[in-house]
Amino acid sequence: MTDYRTVPTVCPYCGTGCGMLLEVSGGRLAGVLPQKGHPVSDGTLCLKGWAAYEFVESPRRLARPLVRRDGKREAVPVEEALSIVADRLRDTVERHGPDAAAFICSAKCTNEEDYLVNKLARAVVGTNNIDHCARL
Amino acid sequence: MSIKEKARELLEGEVDGVLGYRLAGGSHLPHLFTAADIEEMAGDYPAGERYPLASIVRRLQAADPGIRIAVVARGCDERSLVELFKQGQVNLGRTVILGLACEEELARGCGCAVPYPSEILEGRRVEGVPDDSLVEKMDGMPAEDRLDFWLSRFGSCVKCYGCRNVCPLCYCKECALDDAEMVERGRVPPAQPAFHLIRAIDMAGRCIDCGLCEEACPMGIPLRTLYRKVGRVVEDNLGYRPGRSPEEKSPLAVLGTEKDLE
Predict the structure, then answer these.
(1) How far apart are CA B107 and CA B235, in angstroms?
(2) I need a surface site. Which of A69, B75, B173, B261 has the fewest CB within 10 A?
């Protein structure tokens, strides 16, 4: 039988923290509703909040890392992609200094992951060039 | 018999699911209950936590046309279901209404003309308190001032599409508001007054005055006043009030074919 439930959560986009309900039906994320009575947003959302579920099953979502080789994008395993990023990052920092690198983290990551990006930027690479998509 | 008791009884074989509210973390969340979790159904219905349950019924029936659903319905929820039925979007024959009458404070706050469903299971019926004062105030203004008023309100629109997204009567697969020819992409606020008038015209003869659009608007645009105005034009000219009765024909369904409406 078709099922329907809603899961309260916080909008993944900016730092405002609006309350939303994720609509789950048939094992899929089916939509979003603004959470009534939420202390931050009280039943309202902006365009991004209303569309926050769409990227999850978007055909344009990057499901595997792609590496550009000879002008073509090639799917590679995550480990290989990470090695390429690490090598290129090390090479750039060695040649041009830490401030040649910048880091952008995301509200779609957990607090812990964002904390680690912060550590990586400041303590490992040595740059203050760090920003976050929530700082709209 | 309370709504919850009735829901429990219906789940013994008459319906597959009951759409109501589940209490979680102090919030009432829309939820389709089965016999397995019906005990988690909230037994109270706070005025500030209304959701577009009719839209959820429509979507569940679209996914599974055989599904039999009972739904907690205030007057506005029932009107939505009735209007959706007339537009071929909801099967009332497979829908059981668990009628909930609104308390006076909510009815007054909503300025609701019919704050109760056709059959009340829970709550005490209070008479309608239709509030057309804003429509009348607008009608009394000179046309130029009226235009200024609406343009200033529309100018605050952040184009969240919440009014359309939350609307129980909005179900089109292709919406004029998503058409790049009609609504320029990336322009905020949207073109005035076109954006809001497209919606207002779509609401004529369809809006059942639930007020969810106005509640969902982050900018407090008095959308309800606008839609009440177009609703009044339809009612005055065609005698039609959306959602009133499943037997009444919508003028949108007969215009152009019946001579008496020429």
Answers:
(1) 21
(2) B173
